[in-house]
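Title: [Solved] Inter-alpha-trypsin inhibitor heavy chain C-terminal domain-containing protein 3D structure

Original question kept below for reference.
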Amino acid sequence: MQGLDSSLGSVAEDFVEHVWGFLSIKEGLRSRLRSQTSKEREDHIQQATNLSLTYHFLTPLTNMVVEKPEVLADGTMAAAPTIRPAADEAASPADTDDEQPQKLRGQISSLSNKIGKDERRPVTKSIVVSKTSADGDPHFVVEFPLSKLTVCFNINGEPGHVLRLVSDHKYSGVTVNGKLIGAPAPPGSHKQLRTYFSSIAIVADHPRRTYIEVTPNKVILDGRDRIVLPCHTTMAVDSDMLSVAISGRSNVTVTVGGNISFVILLHQYKNPAPYQRDHLGFYIANSTGLSHSCHGLLGQFLHEEVGVAQLPAQGDSNPSVFLKVKDRSVPVVRKSRRIYSGRQNVDCWFARNNAEKLIDGHYEDYVTSHMFDTGEWPNGTNKV
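Solution (posted by the thread starter after getting help):
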């Protein structure tokens, strides 16, 4: 009789503990909706997720996966496969038994591992993208496949400025903005200050607003739920129209709707010099889903054709070369640029003076108010 009482007492304690966990999860979900800042929201999501995993509750933050066992020829069940991290990928704290008990794996998992029906999947590190990009200081490169020409220019921005790289909000719903960070110039440089992209935001407004923000250390995916993914690991997740694939410490590929994709290179320094900053490079991999009305520092050239004209030399001077873009003539010189983290050299026609006459309007027209600003191009021009 005493043993029965002890057993009933244990069951009662377990029941009370699970009720407490259930009510705490509900309160955490409510608090998530009432939170005023991103930090508060992330804290509530993390707390509710941990409780869901601890007490085996299926919530909006977790998924249940049912695995069909393999039946051998003799009628016995095959042993469950053991999944080990790749040789080049260190186990993160979230993968240890302390954080997620072994008995939970394959049953209920956090949405940071699985989003909806889309599971985390392996990502290859090899990438093939176009030359159209903004990387380094930042150096802009635009490839014109129809004209068989490549054009390049520099943008000397100010630290803290957010630049509009791609603007197609009205049609495809896609906007890409990049924030600049400052760094002192290396010894012997003609510049006093250099700027690099410290974060890049990709906003997709169709069918509903979703965004991805990439920094050298993390990726924030805000769709059905807000998820923070580290850049040192390799994974891929989907949310609404956006898909993100991280190749650890190498690059992040963002795909919108299957016909628009961008590749963001991660430039990180183990022992940075005083003039070095962790930064990002932005490359357009697939622009077929962007409209002919697309704009931005890179977007305005995606559906254009250009030509090169040479004027005869005057006296002892060299012949002048001009780039014909839209209805403008832009003086250019021949240069070479290194892209893809220095793995490839590109010969291009370089436009000086902050891309004056090459881009529509002026530099200030591409400075936005914040990272998620999707305002339309003000239709400025610099016709001559």
